[in-house]
Write a structure and sequence with these properties.
The chain is α+β, with helices and mostly antiparallel strands and 84 residues long.
Amino acid sequence: MFEDETIDIDCPKCRHKNSILVSDFEQSAESQFVCEGCKATIKVESAAFHDRLEQLKKEVDDLEREATQDTRKARRPRKDDFQI
């Protein structure tokens, strides 16, 4: 769902924002990348990221479910519903 999205991670040394694909975090519990600013190797533990991503997926699923339920329950307006 979010695999093609990116997140920005600040380098702890130079504060440069590095854009990382979500799919890079989904593949392992720990990811490493090189900062584009200072070329330092940055290690990111993705356990908290995985938890938040699962929570977001659940929230999106709930919103989609609610949206389909609302459209089924909505009644069609009648001419007596309007005042002129």
